[in-house]
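Exercise: predict the fold of this chain.
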Amino acid sequence: MKIKTAIVLAAGFGRKVWPYGEFRQKCTIPIANTPIVRRVVENLIEVGCDRIVVVVGHYAQQVRGALADIPNITFVTQHRIDGTASAVLSALEYVENEPYLVIYGDIVTIPDNLRNMMRDFYTHNAEAAALVQPLGNEDASDWLCGSLDTKAVEGNSVTKLTGIEGHPRGGSYRLCGVYAFGPTATSYLLRNPGVVTRVPVGGMPPPESEIAQSVQLMVEDDREVLAVQTEGFLVDVDKPWHVLEANNRLVDYLATQVTEDQIAAGAKISDAAEINGHVVLGKNSVIGPRVVVNGTLIAGANNNITNGAILHGNIFVGDQCRISDYCDVGSSVVGNRCIIGHGAEMAGVLFDKVYLYHYCEMSGVFGCATDIGAATVCGTLRFDDGDTPMRVEGRYEVPPYGANATYMGDYTRTGVNAIIMPGRRIGSYSVVGPGVILYDDVPSKTMIMAKQELVSKPWGPERYGW
């Protein structure tokens, strides 16, 4: 039986993604200007799921608001946020006695991965399936991992999951947080012990029910669990650098889908602009004189890109932005109603309504309604050419992606001439004052000001012998 129902898990706290998960539900972080959970739901609809149950909890209204205009969605509240298996159980009353898909609401990937998962589950008449991703440069100890076995069945190779392990010291494949279950899986969700028992010695799993442990119980009972490997990219947005990575990888993917210019009604490109690549330009948007575009530009409606702006790489721009006056924008996602003005340099991600009015050098992820003072500079290169470790929930990690970028939360601002050292994070509702050289992370709701010591002494012509 084909899968028509999906359960989306969007209830968790998202503490590891600070400074972006403290005052917003992690699943609503924008990726290419669309909340992650909305993108997940849109992908599910695209691959044929017509009934979607969304489990909410922490900042539930933010999730509801992100999905409110999409039909055929049922919201279920997980009152005690004690694990993903419990979250699925809270939604099962809305799932009839038929197969269903489970996906974490913070996954950014291409629809083909969901489509392949559902196809293989149906083709092999499996009892369960898990999406797995080969581990590259990432440490296996950061993830729930699985072991696989591939065998030939009726002339075709079939890969099965032979076991899971929580945050092992070594591993080749990680579980991606996407599962397909038949009706028999319910008993294994109920049998979940409330902790991952398959861990290395000293692994110290938290007391929460994890779906992967229920999958392990199925494997131990010789139930067939397919392992479906990812294609393209998949980013589980768990930590701040994943926000940067997910945006960059998605925009690069979207750029590959653009094979010709697409100019909407009322949009214009000046004959005095230099375009070296494809342009998607929304309604009433303008590319003015002396603009240089080297790469693929995907821009929304009512944008004004003019007066010598330089854009290079793959760039995704929202609606109602001004990008002008000889600014330099590298591969980036620019939110709605942003301003990148005179001499500003930018590479990374701007959420909605971020202002880079005048000469500054920004690299990283910058939260909603952030105001960057003139001459603010984000350092991206250390004297030792190394990567900056970050402390995440008490544990130091070296990000494999974007280690030296700056990560600023929502509603922050800087004064003139602020210098932000590589890899620093600034919490929401905070201020980095003028002239500050920032070496440490800044907590949310904090103002950091430089204290200047002045020396005053007599001076005048007599000092020169008059």
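Check your answer against the key: Residues 240-256 form the longest helix (17 residues).
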